Amino acid sequence: MAAVYFISDLHLGAPDRASSLDRERAFVGWLDQIAPKAERLFLVGDLFDFWFEYKTVVPRGGVRALGKLAELSDRGLPIELFTGNHDLWIFDYLPSELGCDIHRAPVQRHLQGLDLLIGHGDGLGPGDHGYKFLKRIFENPFFQWCFARLHPNLGIGLADRSSRLSRSHTGLSDAEYLGADREWLVQYAQEQLQHRALDAFIFGHRHLPIDLALAPNSRYLNLGDWLRYRTYAVLENGVLELKVFQGNIETDPVHPGFQRAESR
Q1: DSSP-derived 3-state class of residue 240
Q2: The CATH number, out of the four listed (3.90.1720.10, 3.40.50.300, 3.30.70.141, 3.60.21.10), of the domain defined by the range 3-261
């Protein structure tokens, strides 16, 4: 049976050109590896560390990744792209160039016999009120219009600095599993289970590979990131697993940050 792949938080462009280029080349290598058996690809947010589409200008970089994604799409691979908190200003350029569907909120999918809820995860669950307020501003068409009036050199420069500060602020909390009572996405998933039956929740945003049993028949998976872990999830023959990409080798996650926690 063909496989469905999920990946998030590549943050192409960060923290500098050299390391981003290395990550981008690894991502392209991963895409080449999965292409023969992939039946669908989910890019679950923060593909770029920053993205804003002016009317005739887009940020530099990422051409290898975008070219490979366009190639796979042209060959018939369905691609579903989620906006994240770092690239929520993706509008119509990437969907039209890549021929992909775009999502700005979690979506429910029935795949290989499993009911899945898939989303980037930013702004979900309790807490993080400061970001939720900022997100409403960032999603407001008037403020988007105002930002578009800035020259790209200024606008992209300001946004890049803001992105770096955001990563610096959240770096420590991203480094370890905080426990179900302090993980906002875990709490969100538990709340959703009170209203609908789901076999798994697949999120990004958290930057930590997590595989958590929520109930006897439900799991929460966080996809980790490619800044540190190069992890992703694959659904094959009805089995959903987290994996780590090591060159041309596909293995179970082995990094210290990976959490296979039990429900509490």
Answers
A1: strand
A2: 3.60.21.10
